[in-house]
Amino acid sequence: MAQTTMKTAKAGTPVKTKQSAYVIQKTSGIGTVKVSNEVVMAIAAVAAMEVKGVFAMQGNAAREIVTMLGFKSLSQGVSIQYNTGDCKITVGIILDYGYSIPKVSALVQEKVKSSVENMTGLDVSCVNVRIAGVNINE
Fold first, then answer.
1. How many CB atoms lie within 10 A of CB 70?
2. 3-state secondary structure the chain
3. What would the CATH number be for the domain defined by 39-135?
4. pTM of the predicted model, to two decimals?
5. Per-residue confidence of the chain (138 residues) as pLDDT tens digits?
6. Residue 5 pairs with which residues in a beta bridge?
7. Is 63 exposed, middle or buried (0-12, 13-18, 19+ CB in 10 A)?
8. How far is the CA of 20 from the CAs of 25, 83, 87, in angstroms?
9. What is the spatial distance between Cα 43 and Cα 55, in angstroms, rounded to a whole number?
10. Which residues are registered as beta bridge partners of 133?
């Protein structure tokens, strides 16, 4: 399945392409810098995990099997939809019991948006947060 990604056309205006990486073309003529989708998703996942109250990222069956085999998937629980000029990120999280869902969700949105924008140059139009569960650890 080909993923739609962003390519910078000119003056920092991203356009849709069918590649597995966000491409940043340098005007200096030195070469091209590509950031894979997995990297963008990993940045979003790590940023979400840094928020106090987030226990873990939501997993799916395939990724959990990969994790059981000893491979670590940093992009677990993250999906990205690229549009012309921006992207939308959805993160699925599991909260620790006792934390305010609205407060933690707002912090996750801010952290993911700023981290992805600062590290990749992508314009993040929105960050959707899906609460997939609550960790009750007594």
1. 6
2. CCCCEEEECCCCCEEEECCCEEEEECCCCCCEEEEEHHHHHHHHHHHHHCCCCEEEECCCHHHHHHHHCCCCCCCCCEEEEEECCEEEEEEEEEEECCCCHHHHHHHHHHHHHHHHHHHHCCCEEEEEEEEEEEECCC
3. 3.30.70.1350
4. 0.74
5. 334 344 433 334 444 444 467 666 555 677 788 888 889 999 999 999 999 999 989 875 444 544 555 555 567 789 999 888 789 999 999 999 999 999 999 999 999 999 999 999 899 999 999 999 999 986
6. 17
7. middle
8. 15, 14, 14
9. 17
10. 94
| Integer-rounded Cα radius of gyration of the chain | 16
Rounded CA-CA distance 92/113 in Å is: 15
- Other CB atoms closer than 10 Å to residue 34's CB: what's the count? 15
